[in-house]
Structures are given as C-alpha cells and as structure tokens.
C-alpha cells in the first residue's frame, strides 16, 4: 500500500481512456467465467469501500464475468453478541457456537449484513439476490469436530459449527443465467437432523469456487495479504511454504481457515486463488483487470 492515491480528476481524458483500454485482454480472457469473491467482515467496515466493492461487482457482471459473492461478518456477529452481554470465542479460527450464538449468527449474517450488501449492489445498478445455504438446498452440512492436539482421540465439540457435506449449485447457476448476482451467507443445514450450522465463510467460498469450477477465487480481507514473520507481504505461497508457516505459528487465527480453503481450491481446479487487501479501493478491478496484483497468490 505504498502507492500514493491518484487524484483521478487530475488525469487527462486520453490517459483515462488508455487505462480503460488496457483491461481489454482481461475482459476477453475472463468473459463468461465465474469469479467467487469472499467478502470478509473485516473488509466491509468502511462505507466508502463498501460502495467501491459494490460498483466493482456490478462492473464485472456488466462486462460479462459471473461474480458470486460469499460474505462473512465475524466482527458484526461479535458486536451483536456484545450487545447481548456475550463474548465471542474462537478455536483455530472457528467460532464456538452454542444454540444462542447460532441464533445471533443467523440473524446477523442472513439479515443485516447480507441485506446491506444486496442493497449496495442494487443501488450500483446490479441485480443481487441474497441466499443462505438453506435456499434451494445450496449447502448441506454436518457437525464439525475440531482436531485436539493434546488428545487426538477426543476431538473438540464447538457446537453448531458445520463442515460442508455437499453443495448443490443449481440455484446459483439459475440466478447467474438470469443475470442476477448471488450473495451467499455461510449458513448450512443438515436435512436429516434438521440442524442449522455456522460455517466459516472462507470455507464456503473455497468449496463454492471448487464446485462452480471458478476461474478465480478472491478473498478480501484486512491485511495486505499473507505476511511473513517480519511482517513482509508474501506475494506467492505454495503448499510447502504454507506447511512451514503453519508449523512455526506465522499463520494464526482467522488466517488459518482462509489459507487452508484457498489451498484446497487451488488444488481442486480453481485457476487462480488470491488473498487480497479489501482496504484498497477497487482491489477487485486491480486483481482481475490489470497486471497489478494486490495481495498473495496461493498455488498448489
Ligand atoms: N501471517 C498472517 N498474515 C496476515 N494476517 C494474519 C496472519 N496470521 C494471522 N493473521 C490474521 O488474520 C486476519 C484475517 O482473518 P479474519 O480476521 O478471519 O478476516 P476476515 O474477516 O477478512 O475473514 C488478519 O487481520 C490478521 O490479524
Ligand atoms: C464457524 C465460524 O467461525 N463462522 C464465522 C462465520 C462468519 C465469517 O466467517 O466471517 P468473516 O469472514 O468475517 O471472518 C463466524 O461465526 O464468525
């Protein structure tokens, strides 16, 4: 983020036209392709950036790409819990979710957070539709048990946190075909047990990109990308380096499920996977339509 922001009004029309023209090869390359965008709760805290996100998504749709948005909302859930006198608690980047917390999660993600995104995209000229994993049988889930380092035979039960058992993308494809932009909350359900589950949004984004065989998965967050021990941005990360960073504790908290999901997607047919800085205005356009990357690329 060392770049000095450009005063766009000071740029001559000829240069603006040149910049627009530069995106032509990318538009041709990605026309008709699906791009899964993970919009993290930490990346959506400033209204100016929310509006630039919404405009970028609409622009991508209008030039012929198929954006699918998976949104998070971790900090927004934390605020709602706080108002109710409850503290958020995470294990290995996953929220411990008791029945009361699950109610709040559904209420925040499927309600305010999702509707704000839908509204902003629609105000920018798109046709966004909000879904949760329950809609159209989109995300089937089962209870997740977390690995227990101290006692591998006794995995940890963290409540209503789900693993994805399957994704049926037909509702997403139908919406895409009708020029809608799906905006999906990371909530799954178990049709047999009737339980609803809280799923980490990075996990949903990775799996959705895989199932849709997306061209790109972009995970927008609140860091320049993945940082090494000394805080330097790592522009490219392969499986081997990721193992080392996990082992020495350089990657922690919310970055754990993000990297694991990104790597799974890269291994399972998603052409390019990037963790990008959602605090940079128009980071989506920079990543997709220019040579200038704005984060870390994950390769298998
Ligand atoms: N090596 C690392 N590089 C960058 N961020 C890291 C790293 N390890 C842990 N993090 C943390 O991961 C956070 C991003 O994950 P998370 O809080 O879940 O964001 P989001 O809401 O965007 O999914 C960063 O803000 C940072 O605090
Ligand atoms: C199981 C689990 O941790 N679920 C997440 C779902 C929201 C999310 O992932 O939001 P961000 O992308 O903003 O972190 C949570 O409850 O916070």
From TrEMBL:
It catalyses: N-acetyl-L-glutamate + ATP = N-acetyl-L-glutamyl 5-phosphate + ADP. Residues 33-277 form the Aspartate/glutamate/uridylate kinase domain. Substrate binds at residues 73-74, 95, 198. The keyword DNA damage does not apply. Its main location: cytoplasm. GO terms for biological process: L-arginine biosynthetic process via ornithine. SUPFAM superfamilies: Carbamate kinase-like. Its EC number is 2.7.2.8. The record marks 38, 258 as: Transition state stabilizer. GO terms for molecular function: acetylglutamate kinase activity; ATP binding. It is found in: Cytoplasm. Catalyzes the ATP-dependent phosphorylation of N-acetyl-L-glutamate. This is Acetylglutamate kinase. The lineage of its organism: Bacteria, Pseudomonadati, Pseudomonadota, Betaproteobacteria, Burkholderiales.
